[in-house]
Amino acid sequence: MEITMNKIADRKIDLNTISSKDGTELNQASRIEAKDVKVWYGDFMAIKGIDMTIKPNTVTAFIGPSGCGKSTFLRLFNRMNDYVEGFKMEGKIKINEDNIYKKKINVEELRKEIGMVFQKPNPFPKSIFENVAYGLKIQGITDKKFLNERVEKALRQADLWEEVKGDLKKSALALSGGQQQRLCIARTLAVKPSIILMDEPTSALDPISTAKIEELIHHLKEEYTIIIVTHNMQQASRISDYTAFFYLGELIEFDKTKKIFTNPEKKQTENYITGRFG
Amino acid sequence: MNSIQKNRLKDQLFKYWGIACTLIGLVLLVLFIGDILIDGISRIDWAFITDLPSRKAEKSGIYTALMGSIWILLLTTIIAVPVGVAAGVYLEEYSKKNRLSAILEINISNLAGVPSIIYGLLGLEVFVRIMSLGASVLAGALTLSLLILPIIIVATREAVKAVPKSIRDASYALGASKWQTIWYQLLPASGGGILTGVILALSRAVGETAPLIVVGALAYVPFAPSNPLDEFSVLPIQIFNWISRPQHGFIENAAAAIIILLLITFVMNGIAVYFRNKWQKKWK
């Protein structure tokens, strides 16, 4: 709850102070801070004490071999691990100064702040419109005009509007994989989160769809903080400002992407990005 | 004969054996239905459906039994569906996977295998006597509800389980609560499967005789029930009653009533198949 309250207060100020070059209102991105985070699944320790600060309006790529904990770490930020059996967590994760793992946090409110896009496009078996409007409708918003505006804006932001505007009633399952993934991004944007988590969002897509989504990510960082898990080194170097390399539940190196890919501090990082292991 | 020829022969033999086995069931069913049709089809007319039962076979109709069956069907639906679906959703979505839930699960499967007459005795004691509902439609419907609850629970669980995890993830990630996810995503997505289970369970209920006899459904009722506490009869009991009469006319009546009962269950099963197919298409 507190998070939203803070954010609403923030936004009021932002209306006057922050605007993009053409004068339109901008969404306010959030900052993430993880302190000594440890995660267990049953007896297995998946994250072994990670500290990390992610600045607002940046794109951060999480890289590392399968099973290194990068997805687990990503899912901590919107508490999607809560449903995993045997999940246990220690440490603090703060989003704009609020610890999201304290007891009285409202997980549903938190997830409206922190959107997520998954590996496989997962539209609901409903119409395109219903997919995008879902996040708003569950907040009790029924005003048709407002919904229509938000849906259109989200679809435009996700670069899907031109392709679907005549057919919003069509089933989302009839779209192509790339379109479905952009629909899932639009669905997330419609709720106006401040952070977007992406868990290998292009791994199921063809190169052209991938390029579209990468371009999208580039635009979105103007208004959002973006974290993307990826197995694709080129993708990480193309789209991210910062890169974090995970290995066996530890954060080996976290720095500007340029530095990681040209002059990494650790030998392990270099070995991984040059393809010597992983 | 070499081994290849031997294997081929075995292959052929097994094929024909399989065909024969399949046909046994089908042929018997066709013979049975054919026999019933010959006996009963000429007896079916509008009057047969709208007439009250009578001592004279040719004046007898199934009106009261048919109305009793419809009442039972409606009340059973109203009672069993919400309870069964809610229990199924609870077991699949809320209950923690521990020993207690394992015991619950096994017992629900066991309940599905309990002979229906046992349910009848339970209904007689609990609904007819303790709750003093008497031999009413309501007592009968409550008894049949117990009987088909396990089927609905299991069908609901299977249908809800079949909804991909990615849909749950997507809903939760947008800030939906558990209840919203169930109501807006899981139930609509699993609706076809649940409906199939419900209809199959109900078509079983409409053919049940033993538990209703124990509960006290009457073989002869001169009127159709007008409220849930009225006495009643149902089609299977009417059929049973007519078949036990010596006069040939009643045998014809029984055959005709069987045709109506079969028609009801076939139509219900048909609807179930229709929804299942429609639902499967939606997901593919």
Cα end-to-end separation of chain B: 49 Å
What does the radius of gyration of chain B come to? Answer: 23 Å
Q: Which stretches of chain A of 5+ consecutive residues score pLDDT under 50?
A: 1-23
Rg over alpha carbons of chain A: 19 Å
Largest sheet of chain A: 6 strands, mixed
Q: Note the quaternary state here.
A: heterodimer
Of all chain pairs, the largest interface belongs to: A-B, 27 and 20 residues
CATH architecture of the largest domain in chain B: Orthogonal Bundle
CATH class descriptor name of chain A: Alpha Beta
Number of helical regions of chain A: 11
Name the poorly predicted regions of chain B: none
State the CATH superfamily name of chain A. Answer: P-loop containing nucleotide triphosphate hydrolases
Structure report:
The complex is a heterodimer of chains A (about 280) and B (about 280). Chain A has a single domain (about 1-275), classed as 3-Layer(aba) Sandwich (Rossmann fold), CATH 3.40.50.300. Chain A is of the alpha/beta class. Chain A has a six-stranded mixed β-sheet with strand order 6-7-8-3-9-10, sandwiched between helices. Chain A has a four-stranded antiparallel β-sheet with strand order 2-1-4-5, covered by helices on one side. Mean pLDDT of chain A is about 90; it is low at about 1-25. Chain A has helices at about 1-15, 70-75, 105-115, 130-135, 145-155, 160-165, 175-190, 205-220, 235-240, 255-260, 265-275, and strands at about 30-40, 45-55, 60-65, 85-95, 100, 115, 195-200, 225-230, 240-245, 250-255. Chain B is mostly helical and about 280 residues long. Chain B has two domains: about 5-45; about 50-284, MetI-like (MetI-like fold, Orthogonal Bundle). Chain B has helices at about 5-40, 45-50, 65-95, 100-110, 115-130, 135-160, 165-175, 180-205, 210-215, 235-245, 250-284. In chain B, helix 3 (about 65-95) runs parallel beside helix 6 (about 135-160). Chain B is globular. The interface of A and B includes residues 124, 173 and 188 of A.
